[in-house]
Structure formats: C-alpha cells, structure tokens
C-alpha cells in the first residue's frame, strides 16, 4: 500500500567517546556543555551519558508537550532517585494515582488564603535577621549565601511547625546541611551501587536522616495526641487536617513525613539560592536597586511590615525576583522518562531506545529567540506587554503542567518579604570584581558562596533590639 506519510527525520546525535559518550564533558561543565549544544541545534539533540541515551529539548513548545500536553507519557527520570534517598515518596518523587491523590490532599494547604496565615512568621524571621545584622560588626564581607540558607530554613521551619521545633532547630539545620551535601555528591556519582557502602559520608548521611526523621515523627505524634479542638495555623496542621474528597482518608504518618521533608528541602535550598542571586545582581546594578527601593518606600513606608495586601502592590519587586530566576533558575534542569515513543514535529523519540528527556530552564531563559538581550539583568523583561510576546513555557522557574511546583506562591511570598525588608534597611555592594559563577547541582548555587559588603542604611527600617 502506498502512503504519503513522511518518515521521521533522524534526531541529531553527538558522537562522544566510545562506551562513555559525553559523560565526562557533561559532568565536568554541565552549563558549558548544554549551552554549546543550544548554540549548535534548534530543537532536539541526543547524547550518551552514563550508558543512557539522553534527548535534550531546546524549545518552549516541546517543553510544553512533555510537561502538559502529553504529561501522562512521562515519569520522573532516574536522577530523582538521588532525592528519593531522603525525600521518600513525597510530591516531588511520586507518580501516577498515588501522586494525584497526594496532590489533592496537599493542595488546600497551599491556597493563597491559607498561605496568608504564614506572613507574620515570615516577617518575624526576617526582622530577626535584621536585628542580628544591626547588632553585628559588618565591617568585613558577609557570607550572604549562608545567611540566606539559615533564614530560609528558619522560615520554612516556622511555616511547617510553628514553634514546635524551635528547640531542635540547630540539630535540624546541621542534619539538613549534611543531607543536601550528600545529595549534591550523589548527583554526579556514576556508580550508584556504591550508595549503600558504609563510607564515612554514607554513615554521616544516615545519622542525619535518622535524627531529622525522629524530630519530624515526634512532632507528628505529639500533634495527634492533642485534643481535636486545638488547631495549628501552620503547614503541618493544614496537611494533617485535610481529607481526600473521594475517600475521606487523611495522610498517614509516613505520608506526612515524606511531604514535610520535601517541603523542607524544596522550600529551603531553592529559595535561599534565589535570594542569594537576587542580592548579587542588585549589588552590581545600583540603578535597579534604587528603583526597587523607591517602590518599597512608597508602598511600605520606613517601618511598616509587608501584608498580603501590600505584597500585591510590589509589582517591580516581583519583576526583580522573576528576572533573577530567569538568569539563575534554582531548578535549572529536570528530566523525564518517556513511557512510549513520542512525536516532536518531524522528529520521533523512540522507546525503547531513548532513555530520558532533559528540559533545561537555564537554556530556555537565555534563548535569544524568546528574550531580548538575554544575558542582561533587566526586570522589564516581565512587564505585562513583554510577557505576552513570549511562549508561556519560555519561562519555567517552577516547572509547568500538572506538576507545577505546589509551593510557588509560598516561595514568591517569602522572597518578596525578605527582599523588601532587607533592601529597605541595608545597602549591598560587591566585595571585588570577581565574577560569581553558578555551580550546577540539584539546584543552581553561587560557586564558593556569595560574599557581599552589607551596610545598614541610616534612619531607616526597624529599630535595633
């Protein structure tokens, strides 16, 4: 039988080194390797890494196809096994019907009306840092990236547990740091069978997991023993209250543990890095900082704290945060595993054969096809008239489709509060002229940490305690 159907075009494929493909090039300089591919190819390109055939997508249309239009054909890639070591079967890692049920259960806790209850806690933690800085000798450089890590952990801890965990905060902070460091190392461990070997790092990691789990389970059990009329306006309380609309069931202790640890990691590491990059960019763009400060002073005045209502008026502040996450998206890359073959225009990704699909927001966010002056820090990229000109999936700081990050509103609210209060009260300046390089791992960190000169502004902001 004669058919007019065209055969699919072959997807461009890198040759690489026999047996290992492009493994070493990708591991040595992930951003440089992927950026080089973006310059050479328009839509799709394949390469071998760790014995797997990876397909890199380079357009918003294909990202939308994977994440939204045909999302049920894709599951999380094998790289998420590293996160599953600690996070368990929370929203970030779970799949299928179980994920859909967990999403239904967790969603009410992240509605904007419920999140409004957390604003006071975010203000308290941020003003606490302001008081510390105003009582500290800030003559030398401040390791802002570390300060943001501590602040983001304090915010997410208070948001999750109110004051229940206050006595454990130091232990939690130390344990979470060990867990994150281990996950970073394991991300580029090309011999996953070694993860269970009793190395010193593995022993420290397991001890940190046990310590964190013990604290979380202790808080959950303590809450369950309390009378029903006692309510907690925190995320754990909201998660414990919610019931499945179809079955009436609530989350088990194990499910609560997995969701809490996922929020811990996602709400701590990513937000801290986004804030660090924001202060770095503002320190090197004083004109944008002044425009930002003008809006903050106009909306909040010299000493008012942000509220849900005033946050909506901080439009330029929001644009600054959006632009930071364009240049330095904390979730800079994510992978999907195709379950069946799929069509991308004239190309066809074959299963079996293709082992994984990569979507890289870092590349999409800097693609000159969708962004004017893509390497320039310019919050006006997010003026409404500019946003309308771009494909929606050209900007993916929180992913997209049904698996859009459930905590995106929480993260934006926290970043707005921290940014407005610190910029109102402090000046940030570079320590030197060295270029701050991004370090790609699970998230996109400033390599070696971010140090800035921080100086209190005269006669502004909250009083020194």
From TrEMBL:
UniProt xrefs under SUPFAM superfamilies: Cytochrome P450 (SSF48264)
Keywords attached to this entry: Heme, Iron, Metal-binding, Monooxygenase, Oxidoreductase
Binding residues for heme: 405
Tagged with keyword Heme: yes
InterPro entries: Cyt_P450 (IPR001128), Cyt_P450_CS (IPR017972), Cyt_P450_E_grp-I (IPR002401), Cyt_P450_sf (IPR036396), Cytochrome_P450_Monoox (IPR050196)
The keyword Oxidoreductase is annotated on this UniProt entry: yes
GO molecular function: heme binding; iron ion binding; monooxygenase activity; oxidoreductase activity, acting on paired donors, with incorporation or reduction of molecular oxygen
Required co-factors: heme
Family per similarity comment: Belongs to the cytochrome P450 family.
Protein name: Cytochrome P450
Taxonomic source organism: Larkinella punicea
Lineage: Bacteria, Pseudomonadati, Bacteroidota, Cytophagia, Cytophagales
